[in-house]
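Readers outside the structure-tokenisation community will struggle with the description of the input data as it stands. What matters is that the chain and its backbone geometry are given together, residue for residue. For illustration, here is how one protein appears when written out as sequence plus structure tokens:

…
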Amino acid sequence: MSKIDAKILIVDDDQDVLLAARLFLKQHFSIVHTEKNPENIPAIMKNESYDLILLDMNFSRDATSGKEGFHWLNKIIEIDPLAVVIFITGYGDIELAVQGIKEGATNFILKPWDNKKLLATITANLKVRHNKEEIEDLKSKQKVLIANQDQAYGNLIGQSPAMQKVMATVEKVAKTEANVLILGENGTGKELIARAIHKASSRHNEVFISVDLGAISETLFESELFGFKKGAFTDAKEDRAGRFEAANKGTVFLDEIGNLSFNLQSKLLSVLQNRKVVRLGTNREIPIDVRLICATNMPLYQMVNENKFRQDLLYRINTVEILLPPLRERLEDIQQLVEHFLVIYCKKYKMPLKRINPTTIRRLEKHSWPGNIRELQHAVERAVILSESNILQPQDFFLSQIEDGGQSDESDDITNLEEREKLLIRRVIDKHGGNISKAAKELGLTRASLYRRIEKHGL
């Protein structure tokens, strides 16, 4: 019979008990250590990590109260919070044993014990140690993920008065539990603001769940947000928690909330009012404790007047509103944002840190930036990849509609074939947001051919 891979420590002042337990248990477990003097426990545990400890409840100093056992139980847990301790008592005092479990013991066994029962008790409680380690591992991984997530999104950037106002509001609202509604055009960084609020809140060590409501179909809304029971519908092969359950104790961010139909708005409102969800296929209400942050680029107040958005839902989600300015209204932040993205993408593509000259900054400040910060970010990434120089020039950025003294290189009277080709390439690249593969496919070129033409025209 193969032995269970586990390390057991037995602590008892009776040498006969130690000998009997060791002779029996070493037949079933890979390592079994014994110790007669409990004073040696700290030194032993400093050098060894045990999967399970059998601990006598009463030693020579006080043979009936269990005080010594409780003292050493607390010491063991102090040294190893995940320790699994089984009390050994020869008195059958159930109340004392129950108190021991309340103090942190996992189980107890009476002596003289039955070997089969002892083996079964130890084997069952080894799983407790495994479960504790799994939970701690998950917590540890969650903290790492949260830290990485925060690092990926970084700090808010902007010295313009508009952004300073936003930052001040974020700082104030983050300390509360108020529901927040973030309004702004696409690409202005609404999720970044939501994460900044979460990071500065009392829930920062808990999970942040982002939900793009615009990407969830009406048929999947309830199962995605509220969860479902196995068999609730055809593809429900297992029980699954919804996004609200997953975000319990943390923050849930509902992006594109303006895209919800009137029917789904009612279902969401019910959950927000009652703070309970019901998984599809069940009737059981599950309490939820979440911080709610919503965002949209749609005119919710106008939609309320047009009966396209519920007024009571709007009042529920907009305790505090944050209006994010478009990039064209915070042009003084462009240089700081560009320098931020240069650090990110030069590191990503393993290049020396590139810089940008003042002439290029001035040209970027003339652009209308319809795609806001997201467009700027993609423009910087493309420039980092394609530029041969360590100092980025205006021609390194593929931008449309740049005002240049009222002149446009897209006028209809262009007759030169080279200029027409240059204009076509620029338009197609802009159309696909700088995606060279998609642009090349539409133009009927290979990626290599398109790159040659880009270099040829200085795009």
Q: What stands out?
A: The chain is about 45% helix and 15% strand.
